[in-house]
Structures are given as structure tokens and as C-alpha cells.
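Teaching soon. Invent one.


***
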Amino acid sequence: MIAMILAAGRGERLRPVTDRVPKALVRVRGETLLDRHLHALRTAGIGTVVINLGWLGEAIVDHVGSGAAWGIDVVYSPEGDDVLETGGGIRRALPLLGTEPFLVINADVYTEMPLPLRELATEDLAHLMLVSTPPHRDGGDFDLVGGRVRNGDRPQLTFAGIALYRPEIFADCAPGRFPLAPLLRAAADAGGLRGEIYRGPWDDVGTPERLAALNLGV
């Protein structure tokens, strides 16, 4: 299985930390977020990782190189100054990701979550990892009913930024900039999303305050 790490974003909410450092290279408890993900992927047996590049992407290439230090083959999907958001970034990288289901991880996620490396049922377009909605968010993203991801009026769960996807979920998407969320909502309405809840440590390192709290172990 091939994995992708989404690392192209500007990290606006994390400024001024990300003015000089891409969010993927922000350190939490002495280790960059990107290093944590690469170690986890290698431990899980992943051999090839695609990393998309945008803001300060050259710093990521300088840090990771070929991926040999992690025992992984790393290839890059550069987006330049025209960062394509989550959906557009994955769509652009599809030629590198192959025709089988692939794993995607948001670079700014900090977690000890076991990676969901599993077979997807024929009817499933994706398998999403979900967490309880954290206090800093106004509301959740989805509900989970009988293992199926559902949209709801008052959803209780938050998408953890880690999922398996079939390439077919992007079949009708034109190249360019677009978010991932509308695709997931449409797939949920069609009954094409499976999911599970992770109850362990998880945070999206989205603000300087949350980064400081993580580094303090709060």
C-alpha cells in the first residue's frame, strides 16, 4: 500500500510559528510531526510515501530527501504557490498513488493512532478514522451508525485527518483546487463511507496555543 502525507498548506492558524517553518516540520516533544508520521508508516510496513509540497516545500525536501533515513521511498507532488487544498492535492497526486486503495494522513495531526491498514469492501469508497469532537471545535463532522459514516444535523464525531481512499472517489473531479469535505459528505449520503472511532491521544496542531499545550504535555 502507498501512503500520502498532506504537507502543502500554509498553516495560517499556526502563525507566526509557520512563517519560517512548514507545519509538517513543527516539533512536538522534540520530534517533527513529519518524522512521527514517517516512523509510523515504516513501522506499519508502508514502503512508498507521497508528500505534497507547497509553502516552504524545499525545507521538507531538504529534511526528508529520498526517505532513506526512514527506510521508505519518498516521492514528491509539488504544487508550487498554487496550493490545491486537500481534495485537489490528492487528485493531483493520483498518478503517484496507483490504482489500489491508499492511505492519507494530514501532516498537522499528532496522535498515537494505529494506522487503518485494511481491505476496503467493494462498496466502500473510503474508511475514515474519527475522534470525539475536541472542546475547541464548535461542532463535529460526522456520525457513525453501524460502522457507516453518516451526515447528521448535530454530528458528534470529528474526522481525524487519517483515512483510506479508493482512487474512484476522485473519478468525477476535475484538476485544480478543491476541498475534500464535499466529496466525503456526498459519499456518506450515498452510503459509501465506512469508519471507526479512535479513543486515544489525538490533536490537530492548529494554533500556537495547542502546540504549546502539547509540548507541555497538557
Observations:
- The mean pLDDT is 93.
- The longest strand covers residues 157-165.
- Residues 23 and 208 are 11 Å apart (CA to CA).
